Amino acid sequence: MSTQVQDTQEKRVHDRQEDIKLYINGRFVEGTSGLTFENRNPFTNEVINSIAEGRSEEVDQAVTAAKRAFEGSWGSMKLSARMKYINRIADLIDEEVEEIAYLEALDTGLPIAQTRKMTARAAENFRFYARMVQTKLHGESYPVDDEFINYTVYNPLGVVGLITPWNAPFMLETWKVAPALATGNTVVLKPAELSPLSANKLAEIIHKAGLPEGVFNVVHGFGETAGASLVAHPDVKAISFTGETTTGSIIIKNSADSLKKTSMELGGKSPLIVFDDADFDRALDATVWGIFSFNGERCTANSRVLLQKNIKDRFVEALKERVANIKIGDPLDPSTQLGPLVEKEHYNKVKQYIELAKEEGCEVVQGTVPEDVKAGNFVPPTLLLNATNDMRVCQEEIFGPVMSVIEFETDEEAIAVANDVRYGLAGYVWTKDLKRGHRVAQAVEAGMIWVNAQNVRDLRIPFGGSKDSGIGREGGHYAFEFYTEPKVIHVAIGDHHIPQFGMKK
Ligand code: NAD
């Protein structure tokens, strides 16, 4: 680690931040209405700053600017010039990793050791799409005898609306912004109201990278107003959404009038299955990391762990020991493993689920929150033992550091339990039996399954969920299917037959 990074780490404190504005048409502006909302620090529950609130008027201004930019220089820019901008954004993110990671930890309560990694990944999102667009965004050609060549081209859609959640804000924003811009669209981003800071940092970076005005816009505000206006706007061609399943459903309904394309990355209740032949220690590490990293506010979290009967007691004892030792504390402390939940309301919701688990018959085992951080929204790492899959705590997404522990005996039972849930985002299988690993992975209903692996992801693979966890896939070249539209061009290279209607006999 460089001395410079070490120095900045040491200085990190829970500072008040400057108030932030909207970013529309290349300018940081107050909303026309002058409305603002407060942004709070989950560690102290004190106000960090005040945020300009956009509503339909500001969304309209941003969409108008984005439309003009699309019809202007951005839309006609040469690929190599566009990619220079995309790579420049990646470089500028790299230069500001420490500042972005800090803002993210301050705003969301995510431990800074984890936000640093997320931020580095965000830069890679831009670099990756610069490469992908140049190598993989190409059409096909279909020669038809000596008469025709049909070929396809992939065009950007125009203005796309990106609506993002608070659980990994910067990573998820860039996950959408990078392919949207790289494929030639212009963007209006509506970040989550609970985590606005890093979105403005992205706006600053894009501003510094010198993108033409209007190509990228940020409108802060609430879902029901700013978000809904973006969804309803007739000049927005597509909405890429990440968030709760119920919100996704509302957005699909609201986008119907303007016939928008939508991409839905939604909630999860993912199973992690540990068979008795698994590598015990690695399975344990992955289980603990998969639920307690990102404070448990992770869409692909293994919130249900299924343990085979023979190893259950030993595994549970090991889980209890880990839970007791997870380092709970200040998200700005680089040694913290679990920070506070994003806001009081979400904290209360998670606490209520823990009470419900007791009512439903679970034994609840928790770590201990240190006295000196009690002002924050801390929920200790929590195990819900003796859970059965029909309990609400096993069926509903809690979105906190809470994991249900369910026993099973056979492969068939594990698969049935894993699948008996409305969600289908992710799944994890731990076994040394290769055949079983593949068989179970193929049988579990989810968009993404890891076998003997924690949630590591290559950017080339499709990302998304099945069942109520989503519609469509982003990631890799799959994002092109969403952010571009194919057009086929039929060219005659011979004199094919054309029927002669209306000819005189
Ligand atoms: P949320 O649905 O409450 O909000 C997400 C975004 O939608 C916010 O920006 C919000 O303002 C906006 N929104 C709310 N109502 C809207 C409306 N009517 N019209 C338009 N926009 C609206 O989700 P959240 O609480 O911010 O995030 C947590 C959820 O996100 C969890 O369910 C989690 O599983 C899910 N998630 C999914 C993935 C994935 O890739 N599948 C990744 C991360 C998070």
Entry summary:
The protein is an alpha/beta fold.
Main β-sheet: number of strands, strand sense, barrel status?
7 strands, mixed
Number of strands: 22
CA radius of gyration is 25 Å
Taken from the alpha-carbon principal axes, the silhouette is globular
Please give the oligomerization state of what you see: single chain
CATH superfamily of the largest domain: Aldehyde Dehydrogenase, Chain A, domain 1
Describe it:
With 505 residues, this protein is α/β, with parallel strands linked by helices. The chain folds into 2 domains: 15-266 and 469-489, Aldehyde Dehydrogenase, Chain A, domain 1 (3-Layer(aba) Sandwich), CATH 3.40.605; 271-451, Aldehyde Dehydrogenase, Chain A, domain 2 (3-Layer(aba) Sandwich), CATH 3.40.309. Helices cover 40% and strands 21% of the residues. It has helices spanning 3-11, 56-71, 73-76, 79-95, 97-108, 112-136, 169-182, 197-208, 223-232, 245-254, 280-292, 309-325, 344-359, 392-395, 411-419, 434-443, 478-483, and strands at 22-24, 27-29, 36-40, 47-52, 141-144, 148-156, 159-163, 186-190, 216-218, 236-242, 261-265, 271-274, 304-308, 363-366, 382-387, 402-408, 423-424, 426-430, 448-451, 466-467, 470-471, 484-492. The strands form 6 sheets. It has a 7-stranded mixed sheet with strand order 14-15-16-13-12-18-19, with helices on both faces. A 6-stranded mixed sheet has the order 9-8-7-10-11-21, sandwiched between helices. α2 (56-71) packs parallel to α9. The longest helix is centred in the first third of the chain and has 25 residues, at 112-136.
